[in-house]
Amino acid sequence: MTVPSHAQDHHHGPMTDLPPRALDGVRTRRILAILVDLVLITLIVGVAFVFLSILGVLTFGLAWLLIPPLFPVVALFYNGLTISGPSRGTPGMRLMDLEVRLTDGYRVPFIYAAVHAVLFYLCWTFLTPIVLVVSLFARNKRCLHDILASMVVTRRAS
Prior knowledge:
Number of domains: 1
Largest sheet: 2 strands, antiparallel
Mean pLDDT: 85
Number of helices: 7
Radius of gyration: 17 Å
Order of helices and strands: HHHHEHHHE
Shape: elongated
Oligomer: single chain
Strand order of the largest sheet: 1-2
């Protein structure tokens, strides 16, 4: 019998009633983490843009068709791979001492992390004031996209 990959993760139980220390400064740290991650994503996109621009010349413009969706695709995989990875967070989140888990305490699978990224960009694009208000009143300081994706962001040391 094989053990599901999420069962190999350390299970902390439901992440619904967390101690105050686990949520100390989470909102501020998340904002700083987002800024760090946006800079890193922009750098990755910049390198890919240069590569595709050169490749576009060699392919008579065909590679240039990949440039318009470049930022969203890089952001989706950046968030999906880093949040679902062993560090449980993006480089910005790790720098700010944060991690992401499902509300049941398990590690986030890639597909959930990718959906979380899409929800993040949709919520911040179309519902910015609602996202901020939700995080002020929601249990465990969760943003709207966290609630929709069944995730919670906490301090690592908790």
